[in-house]
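Worked Example 4.2. Consider the chain below.
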Amino acid sequence: MENIILCIGGLEERLSIIWHILKNLDSYSIIDLNGKLYTLHRYNMDLRLLRLGHNASINIFRVENIDECYSLALDFKLALNIGDLEFKALHEALYQSYTRNNIDIQSIIDNITEYGGATTGGIRINLLLSFLNSLRIGITGKALNKENIPKTCFNLIDLSLLPSISHKILVLLSLMRRFREAIVVDDSSLLEPILVNPYFKSEFRSRIQERNIVLSSSSIKTAKYIIEDFKEILISNINSETLRFLEELGVDRENIKLTSGEEVSVVDVKFNSGSLYSINLKNISRIVIEKLNVEDVIGPLPKETIEEHTTAISRLFGERTGDAIAVLEVLSNGALTRDSLITFIMYDRGLRSDEAVKLIEKLSAYNLIKNEIGKDYRYYYRITSSGFKLLDDYKSTPPRDLVDGSDRRG
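Applying the procedure from the previous section yields the following C-alpha cells:
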C-alpha cells in the first residue's frame, strides 16, 4: 500500500475502500473513533474487537524512556490545545515522575499541583488538573487505567465510550506512537478542528510521515488541511460539489476523467500528476453494513460500568447534584459551546470557572454529556441518551428520596 492514503465517503463506501486496502496485509490496526466499523469483523474473523472501557484499556502514561515524556506532553498539547505554561508544567511533572520511577496519574497530578502553587496562571493549571482528574473516573478511568491491548495481527480498537473528542484524540496519538503496523483512523473528520491551527497541523503531520496510514473521513473538507501529505485520495460519491472542491485544491477539471454511469462512484486522486481517475466498483468488493452487536462477540459491559449510568445522580455528584441537573436541563434544550456552558454554570450556579470546568469534565467522564463538532467547526456540548435517562429518573424521584442538601430545584 502507499504510505499515506485518505479515503472519503459514506460509511459503506469507506468500509469498502478500507477493506480493499487492508485485505492482503499481514497486520493492521483500525482505530474506530465512533464505534461504527464492527461490520469488518464479518470479513476477517481474526479481527480482534477491543472496546476501551469494556474489554480493553490503555495506560496513556506508559513511557519507555525520558524522551517519551516530551512526546506524551505533546500529545496533551495537541488534544487539549493547552498553552506553554500548562505544557511546561505537564512535561516537568512527567519528567519528575519518570526519574522517580513512579509515573502514574496521581503522581503527575501531585507534581503539577506543586508546580502550579509556585507560578502564576493558576486557573489554566486548574483546567489541566480538571482534565487529568477526569481520566480517573467513570468509564474513562476503566479505559485508561492500565495496559490491556493484546499484541495481535489484526485489531479494531473502539474509542466510542470515551466521553469527549479531546479524550479520543489523546488516545489516538498515544496509539499512533506505539503501533508500527498499518493504521486506519475513522472517522478522521473529528480531527479537522486541530488541523485548522498551523502549529497543530504541522505537529500532527509529523506523526504520520513514513507510516502506512489511512485516514478515513466522512467529510471531503478533511483533505483541505493536509492535502500535500497524501500519495493518493480515494473519494466516493462524486458530485458537482465534490468536483468544485477538487478544483479549489488545484485539480484542473480537464484532468478529471470520470466514466459516465452510476457504477463508477469511487475515484482515485493522484496529486503528483494533478489528475483524477475513476475506479470501477466492479473491481472492489462491496462491504454490506450489517448490524453486529459487539457484546455478542466480546461479552456484555461489566455490571459496575452499567451501574455508573443508572445510579441516582445524587449519588454520583453529592452536593453538586443541583449543578449537574442544571447543566443537563440546559443542554436538553440544545447544544452549547464550551465557553457558553462555562458562562452559564458560573452565572446561573455561582461556581468559579475552574469549578465549572471540573463539573463539565465529570459529566463527560460519566458519559452524561459529550463534546461534538458543529457545522461551524466549533466544539459543542450535547446531552447524551444516558444524560436524558438520569435527568428523567431525577425528575421522577420524590424530593424526600434525594440526598439532603443536593437539590436546588425551585
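Residues 302-401 form a domain with the Arc Repressor Mutant, subunit A fold (CATH 1.10.10.10). The two ends are 62 Å apart (CA to CA). Compare this with Example 4.1 before moving on.
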